[in-house]
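Many introductory courses stop at the sequence. We go one step further.
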Amino acid sequence: MANYLFLRGNRNKGFFIDIANELIEKGHQCFQMKFELGELLFKSSMNTIYAPFHLSKREYPITDEALRNLKIYNITYKERILEKETTEKELRVYKRYMYLIDKYIEDNDIDIICLFNGYHWIDQVSKVIAEKRGLKTYIFEDGIFRPYTITCDERGINADSSVPRYAAFYDSLEINPDRINCYLFKPENVELKHHTKENLLFVAFIKAINMIGNLFRLSPKLYIHITLWQAIKYFVHKKVFPLRRNNNFEWPKEYIFLPFQVARDTQILYNSPNIKNMEQLLEVVLGAVKELNTAQKREVKIIIKEHPEDMSRNHYRKLKKRFKNNDNVIFIQKYDVKQLISKALAVVTINSTVGIEALAQYKRVITLGEAAYNIDGVATKCDNPKMLGDVLKVVLEFEVNKERITKFLYYLRFHYQIEGTINRRNKVTAENVAKRITPSPEGNLLHELSK
């Protein structure tokens, strides 16, 4: 039997609670440290403490430099976006919580730590503690084949994940063709179909309580990238956007599909060494397409789809005004992504999950950043943005390796990902996750496949 510690969690605060309930039924012990005021509204079978009420002035022995070098989103965001330096006072707060977490781990003989996303300061400092103590960590995130899968990885998410990057691994993999044809983007368990819609009003209510807690210093400052006004705009957009009509546009005969990503996401901040924003991304791709058109006397255009999660923060008005009279650039906010992919010559992305959707249609995919699907014969990575024109010319002549792509997708969907949904609490998801993270031969299936 193992002792689990659950830290933080996603917007659905019941996700970790449900998993813990399943583990407790199996005879394990589960503990939880809560950090936000809104979390106190959720009842749990776990041994629980509200961390801010147990904080002391004692600090974990780690240097400021070591903290700054961690992939802590708050620090990175402050430096790159706000162009400010994290203060010594803020770092002291991290050290004090780090000391508390470390002591709680020791006092309760914790074996396994469960985190969400992994780039929050709580996650990053906990990973340091876990590594020093030789503890296992599981990092969760929304799944790749949303909304019916969940990511759960011992190493991290996206480019930090444990997804094998060598082609021979997939070539030797045996698959069930009927399974991938039927369930790549559908749940095998039909019960999950009823648990995909998120209760946005409830999420907003909990978020408001958390912000109040932070305002009255009843909880630490967990997020630096969002204000109350930004949160309101975000949730209003989430409610209104589904009611909007699709964009009308004239389909080009030939085009490259360019999905924009969340501009300030960890994917850009940590996994995009060359492209720092969407404006630069468009410049690079436009230059490559011009080069292609000139060399081959073609009229290939670019269709850009803005990321729905980013629209309440980034309107790109200046960028759209700049290209208003450029027939080679088409901006779209709302349209079915599958259709946009289906007619494209290729998909160029930094490292978006849209790349996975494109692979599912056996499209040529070029990445400009670090991605879990940067695998020979699956996607083509362009390390130097200046060379994208040459890469594009070559890739468009390639024969797509459908067999390798199919095996890669099969591994992702049926071995790597966990079937379940984070949006709504349900027992099926909790059972599947608990099975994966239970220390047993069944729970270690992914580890065995990755050898």
